[in-house]
Design brief:
The structure is a homodimer. Chain A is α/β, with parallel strands linked by helices. Helices cover about 25% and strands about 25% of the residues of chain A. Chain A has six helices and twelve strands. Chain A has a nine-stranded mixed beta sheet with strand order 2-1-3-6-4-5-7-12-11. A three-stranded antiparallel beta sheet of chain A has the order 8-9-10, with no helix packed on it. In chain A, strand 9 and strand 10 form a beta hairpin. The first copy, chain A, is globular. The two termini of chain A are about 15 Å apart.
């Protein structure tokens, strides 16, 4: 077992997701809150300029700038491409034997509650999230990538990278209850790492429920790319609930229903996320699975 | 009684408030939906560039550009200042004997449901909103300005100007249920105007409940202007509910409560509206009143 030497608590990867920004500000004022005995914790804002103006990004989405080929491409010079290289230097490139635990704090307008997003099913992350879901059973675990697949998101620069996605909350506002819940979970993670470093984590007894991303679904659009339908009211805010074949997904502006035509039950998440309209994503479809490890 | 010759249904005064934008698009495709027998209805997007990029505004907030002194100031040349002059030419300057009914469609992140905002207590508007609240008792009426007071908001260019404020919904997303409710209310308004023009509106029997704006409250801030506290979880989403002296308003990042220290019960609205952080507004305080007319 390798010890964890550093934990990075990152806020403001998107400048209009305020929970992480204000938590990092708090941790900078009171570093004792995130200090533990046997590792170092660093709290930083990933995109300071975007935080200052309260927008998701300046030039391009920072959380899509971490493909290895882009990090190594010195012709890319947008503000966020340069930031990504800096962040990769800090937490990604060295210490492949002792990778840093990265907790990247995000908000969503979808009703996803407290969700951990993993790119890989690293045993440490599965152990950690199993522990967290045993403490707080409402926490969900979404596996977005595949093991060893290159990824463009910040968390992917470390095999121990996690996104903590919290919602629903509108962009640009602080929700006090979600702020407090997020702070508490960060504390629980740091406590877990401290005990882990002492070699005292007992084997998990229960399997972990994960939601494995299988595809994204776009809004119905016309040939000009204009949206032709909305999330159906019966699907809105029903993240992590089963969607069965034949059930409604979208509602056109004239009131016609568009049904889910897949063959098996899926569990949509990121339903009606504001930031994903420009990405052509109305929701992710996931499969619910149990994993042991 | 003066007949109403034109009704303007305006969407996209803010480019990230999608209900109005997609409704105006729908009415442009199907003008029969807003056509009535004895007046003309016009549906337009107020800020097309902001709608295209999905931001509230390009240079400055269009819905603060309608002070008379600004409309007459030819040195003002921001995109929105010019737009405001165009809109004023269309719906504000002429026909003072037969003003246009303006319905300006907005969304809010606050839990305000369906709210009509009036600047003045014009008898027509009071009659209309009394009718609407008798049909749909959940509709609220907020009186924001004072009679004959100059105002910077779009609705103020006509004595019959109304804002239809719908929430809660995050900026940049479509909520199908709110879309359908808003469309239905616009239809009810147009039906009312048709009957009004026929001289067939019976006198209202019931008084109208209004919420009169008395002041705005900012977030607690430090000397740098940085926010020091969040809306208290017990106040979040409680728009139009009574707030009594001694009840909590804010929660600091360290968990300390800040109480409402006024002397009388008030009814906060626009609680935690995303667009108002930059304006120094955490909420409006209102008084609940009954009006006859």
């Amino acid at each position: 077992m390798k010890k964890i030497n550093r934990v990075a608590v990152i806020g403001g990867t998107h400048g209009n997701e305020l929970t992480g920004i204000y938590l990092v500000n708090k941790f900078e004022r009171s570093p004792n809150l995130i200090a533990r005995s046997n590792f170092k914790t660093i709290a930083i804002l990933a995109n300071p300029k975007a935080c200052k103006i309260g927008k998701r990004y300046i030039d391009i989405d920072l959380n899509r700038c971490f493909l290895r080929q882009d990090l190594e491409n010195y012709n890319l010079s947008t503000y966020e491409a340069l930031l990504a290289k800096e962040i990769y230097q800090m937490f990604g490139s060295s210490n492949t034997d002792n990778p840093d635990l990265i907790i990247d704090l995000h908000n969503t307008t979808a009703n996803m509650g407290i969700t951990f997003i993993l790119d890989s099913q690293h045993p440490f992350n599965l152990g950690l999230t199993t522990h967290l879901t045993s403490v707080a059973p409402n926490i969900k675990v979404l596996v977005s990538g595949k093991h060893n697949q290159d990824s463009s998101v910040l968390r992917s620069i470390s095999p121990l990278g996690l996104t903590l996605e919290v919602g629903p909350v509108a962009q640009g506002i602080l929700d006090a209850s979600l702020f407090q819940q997020t702070e508490e979970i960060i504390g629980t993670i740091l406590d877990y790492v401290e005990v882990y470093n002492q070699g005292k984590i007992p084997p998990a007894e229960n399997p972990l429920t994960i939601y494995q991303k299988i595809q994204t679904i776009d809004y119905p659009r016309n040939e000009l790319g204009e949206i032709q339908a909305m999330i159906h009211p019966r699907l809105q805010f029903r993240d992590y609930q089963p969607l069965n074949p034949g059930e409604p997904m979208f509602l056109t502006f004239d009131g016609d229903e568009i049904l889910y035509e897949g063959r098996s039950t899926v569990y949509p998440v990121f339903i009606n996320e504001a930031a994903y309209y420009e990405k052509g994503i109305a929701m992710y479809l996931t499969q619910k699975q149990m994993v042991g490890y």
